[in-house]
Design a protein that fits this description.
The protein has 116 residues and is an all-alpha fold. The protein contains five helices and no strands. The chain has two domains: 58 residues, no CATH class; 34 residues, no CATH class.
Length: 116
């Protein structure tokens, strides 16, 4: 069970929770305040410094290393994709299926899970 104070701190990051419950995070997630702040900083850097690409690329690799450490993986095992659909398509196309193989899908699941 999550302590009430920790849950309150997480909820505070998501202003949408002040007026609604949100459960459909697989479709379109609410934005956390910390993510908004990071985006504003990113856009400000682009505006004020004409896009410091070396800085941004370094941050990508630092983030990749942090994610890898969290999952006890190698940074080379971590890939960033634009969204869940792209990641699922990459994974599905890595499976060596051939004509006649059966693929079981969940009825009513998101269409992108079947497109690959």
């Amino acid at each position: 069970m999550i302590p009430t104070d920790k849950l309150a701190a997480v909820r505070e990051q998501f202003p949408v929770t002040r007026h609604q419950l949100y459960f459909d995070s697989a479709h379109q997630t609410p934005l956390a305040q910390s993510v908004r702040d990071a985006l504003v900083a990113f856009f400000s850097e682009g505006l004020e410094m004409a896009g410091p690409k070396p800085v941004w690329l370094r941050r990508v690799e630092e983030t990749r290393a942090s994610v890898a450490a969290f999952f006890n993986a190698s940074p080379s095992e971590i890939a960033f994709v634009k969204n869940t659909s792209e990641g699922l398509n990459i994974a599905a196309n890595a499976v060596p299926l051939k004509a006649g193989d059966n693929v079981v899908l969940i009825e009513g699941d998101h269409p992108n899970n079947a497109y690959a």
